[in-house]
């Protein structure tokens, strides 16, 4: 058997990408990040709202409003 490399990425960034992608399994995974307390919902929302509008210019398929709506919708479903 060969060696296995394991990489652990920032759980807040992973949660954001999963919510934005929006597939069922991604949303379940994002929920697990919060249920396990790896991601604090309030801190997550604060971090997402601090993303500057200029950051979205690199990703023409994303808009700040759409990302915030997806995140807020995801969080409200968990309350």
Your description of this structure?
- This protein has 79 residues and is mostly helical.
- It has one domain.
- 58% of the residues lie in helices and 0% in strands.
- The protein is built from four helices and no strands.
- Helix 1 runs antiparallel to helix 2 and helix 3 packs antiparallel against helix 4.
- The model has no long low-confidence stretch (mean pLDDT 93).
Which terms summarize this structure?
4 helices; about 80 residues; single chain; mainly alpha; globular; about 0% strand
- The topology string of helices and strands comes to HHHH
Number of domains: 1
What kind of oligomer do you see? single chain
Give the proportion of residues in helices: 55-70%
- Report the count of strand segments: 0
Number of helices: 4
Tell me the strand percentage band.
under 5%
Overall SS class = mainly alpha
Tell me the span between the first and last alpha carbons: 45 Å
In round numbers, the mean pLDDT is 93
Gyration radius over CA:
14 Å
């Amino acid at each position: 058997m060969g060696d296995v490399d394991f990489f652990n990425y920032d759980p807040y960034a992973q949660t954001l990408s999963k919510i934005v992608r929006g597939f069922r399994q991604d949303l379940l995974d994002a929920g697990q990040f919060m249920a396990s307390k790896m991601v604090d919902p309030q801190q997550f929302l604060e971090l997402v709202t601090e993303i500057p509008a200029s950051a979205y210019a690199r990703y023409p398929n994303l808009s700040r409003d759409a990302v915030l709506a997806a995140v807020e919708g995801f969080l409200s479903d968990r309350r």
